[in-house]
Amino acid sequence: MVQYMTTRLDTSFAALSDATRRGVLEQLGRADASITDLAEKFHMTLTGMKKHVGVLEQAGLVTTKKIGRVRKCQLGPRRLEEETAWLERYRRRWDERFDALDKVVEELTRKEKSDERKNRK
Amino acid sequence: MNARIESEPGPVKNRTTVERKSDREVVVTRTINGPARIVFEAFTKAELLKRWWVPKSMGMTLLSCEVDARVGGKYRLVFDHGGPEPAAFFGTYVEVKPYSRLAWTNEEGGEGGPVTTVTFEEKGGKTLVVLHESYPSKEALDAAGTGAADAMVETFDQLDELLVALGESSGQ
Asked: E strands, chain B, where?
């Protein structure tokens, strides 16, 4: 398990350590693209781009699918999972915070109401 | 980019929703059971803010809390998060409209930190709080998680887990 984790981290870091590969991820964030498109965009040979995409694919950051003679690339499944996990983490923090705020506000509101009653007497 | 997560509706507890509006913005909404005036005070008075801003479940202790909620006024919160040094979070209030709107900068990360805007809307004795965090870049938001303090604790938690896992594997 640890080995799996470390390997996965290593492949992710390795995948992201290269400026071209980061550029490819950015590009795919905007729209899916073929390896040929990417090679042109980054002024590289087809072989060079294939290697980069291979590294990203191994890290789970990109998936590719062969449609006819063209290999289409898109962002991998990890992105969505991470996005969801990120949002849930964010939500939980604020939820805890607002639960605590609710208690404070309810207490103050109650206190104010009882003070009003006292003042009316 | 409109992923949205909501908590389960409970019988009493109000729902907190989080929505990532764009690459750089997150919006949190929550209805609080009390008038806007009191909710606003809970945001702007130090002695009240420190009672809820860092609930126990966050695993941090608030060491000090200074708030000067006027336009141009500063706030400064110091936390003990279990690390070697306490962490300070500070910034400046840029908008203060009593009972309806509040905005502050988050300056602990240097220039280009996020700006937090909160609006308070009262309806039938309850207040809808909409908190908007706007980051200078997508990267800054991704890194933030829940504001630097929380992200840091989470980082330490993850590091702890990793160390435990590594320790177990080396012991085998």
From this structure: 4-6, 16-20, 25-32, 61-67, 74-80, 87-97, 101-105, 115-123, 126-134
pTM of the complete model: 0.62
d(CA B146, CA A86): 9
Contacting residues of B for A104, CB less than 8 Å apart? 42, 48, 51-52
Confidence check on the interface: ipTM exceeds 0.85, yes or no: no
Interface of B with A (CB under 8 A): 3-7, 13-14, 16-18, 20, 26, 28, 30, 32-35, 38-39, 41-42, 48, 51-55, 57-58, 127, 129, 131, 142, 145-147, 150, 154, 162, 165-166, 168-169
* Dihedral in degrees, nearest 10, Cα atoms B95, B58, B108, B46: 50
Inter-chain contact B5–A88, Cβ cutoff 8 Å?
Answer: yes
Query: What is d(CA A64, CA A33) in angstroms, rounded to the nearest whole number?
Result: 10
Which CATH number, 2.60.40.2310, 1.10.10.10, 1.10.8.60, 3.30.70.100, labels domain A2-75? 1.10.10.10
- Residue ranges, chain B, pLDDT below 50: 1, 8-11, 146-167, 169-172
State the CATH architecture for B4-171: 2-Layer Sandwich (3.30)
